[in-house]
Design a protein that fits this description.
Elements (H helix, E strand, L loop, with lengths): L2 E6 L2 H4 L12 H4 L2 H4 L2 H6 L1 H16 L5 H8 L5 E6 L5 H5 L4 E3 L2 E8 L6 E3 L17 E5 L9 H8 L4 E5 L20 E5 L13 E3 L3 H12 L4
Parallel strand pairs: 1-2, 1-7, 2-3, 7-8, 8-9
Antiparallel strand pairs: 4-5, 4-6
Helix pairs in contact: 6-9
The structure holds adenosine-5-diphosphoribose.
């Protein structure tokens, strides 16, 4: 089976009702990144940070995977599909994707502030001040904040380097190291982009652009890839 590697961002969850970050009305219009998604923000006002992620976790409980997530999961019948997502939602997994790398963490998990290896599944429950890990330290969202290391990037680079086909769906490619994965796509692989807006793809490779929302775009991609399987 050919290896299909897909880098997704907030745009693939937009049709599930989850806000993106940099579109009009996006999350970064309502909140300052440094206040709610940085170690400094956590140090200055952990209650605000906990509320930011508790609100998003509660919203996620009421969201469903959309045709984009479902279409990608269905491609596992024909390709060895690896999803590398910047998203912290669980919609790829709930749609049936079996190989998902979360570069920026997972909303449904909490972790110790004493030992980052100590991670707990919390589903859609809140994390409250005073919720402690087994070592007695405050629990925090299992999210990669700005300025923090991206532990899964090594695995993502390895998977990207093995791609026969690489698709970028629903990301503005603004944030590194995720956006830098493009540089690791093998020369012989085909490169695809699904986004209703124009997105600058770094480098000078040929990009097959499908200028559609994810639901429709994945359907078109699947049709085009059937000739390549
Ligand atoms: N279908 C597909 N793409 C869409 C849709 C849709 N229905 N709606 C919007 N988009 C596209 C936008 O055109 C944009 O290119 O999704 C992209 C969203 O870009 P951002 O809001 O910048 O989100 P993302 O690229 O995922 O951000 C990366 O930045 O703030 C950090 O950690 C956060 O993981 C996030 C990272």
């Amino acid at each position: 089976m050919k290896k299909l590697v897909i880098l997704t961002g907030a745009g693939i969850s937009a049709e599930s009702g989850i806000k993106t970050f940099r579109d009009a009305g996006g999350l970064w219009e309502e909140h300052r990144v440094e206040d709610v998604a940085s170690p400094m923000g956590w140090a200055l006002n952990r209650r605000l940070v906990l509320k930011f992620y508790n609100d998003r976790r509660r919203q996620l409980a009421g969201c469903e995977p959309n045709a984009g997530h479902i279409g990608l999961a269905a491609l596992e019948k024909y390709f060895d599909v690896h999803i590398i997502t910047q998203n912290i939602d669980n919609l790829h997994e709930r749609a049936g994707s079996t190989k998902v790398i979360h570069l920026h963490g997972e909303l449904t998990k909490a972790r110790s502030t004493k030992d980052p290896e100590l991670i707990y599944d919390i589903g859609y429950n809140d994390i409250r001040e005073g919720d402690k890990c087994d070592l007695g330290s405050q629990l925090r969202p299992h999210i990669v904040w700005f300025g923090e290391a991206v532990p899964m990037i090594e695995e993502a680079v390895k998977v990207t380097g093995q791609a026969d086909i690489f698709a970028v769906i629903g990301t503005s490619l603004n944030v590194y190291p995720a956006a830098g994965l493009i540089e690791y796509v093998p020369e012989g692989a085909s490169l695809w982009l699904i986004d209703p807006n124009d997105v600058y793809v770094p480098g000078d490779r040929r990009v097959e652009v499908i200028k559609e929302a994810a639901g429709k775009g994945v359907e078109i991609l699947a049709g085009r890839l059937m000739d390549l399987k």
